[in-house]
Amino acid sequence: MKKSKVLARLFLLGCLLTPVAYSAESFTVQDIQVRGLQRITLGTVFNYLPVNVGDQFF
């Protein structure tokens, strides 16, 4: 499986498993946790993530 597909699946899985407070207003990313990596380094995952801690979503 290609590295980008693995990273995309990891990101989507993390989004689904992370509790999110839904509101009509924006929210700020407070923490990003990555667990269970075996073949990809943590730095690679963070390089591919389209968000960073402190980013705001509306």
Description:
This protein is mainly alpha-helical and 58 residues long. The protein has one domain (3-57). Helix content is 38%, strand content 7%. It has two helices and two strands. The chain has a two-stranded antiparallel ribbon. The longest helix has 15 residues, at 3-17. The radius of gyration is 13 Å and the shape is elongated. The termini are far apart.
Helical content band: 25-40%
Percentage of residues in strands: 5-15%
Element order: H for helix, E for strand: HEHE
Number of continuous helical runs: 2
Topology (SSEs and partners):
Blueprint: H1 3-17, E1 27-28, H2 42-48, E2 56-57
Antiparallel strand pairs: 1-2
Quick synopsis:
This protein has 58 residues and is mostly helical. It is built from two helices and two strands.
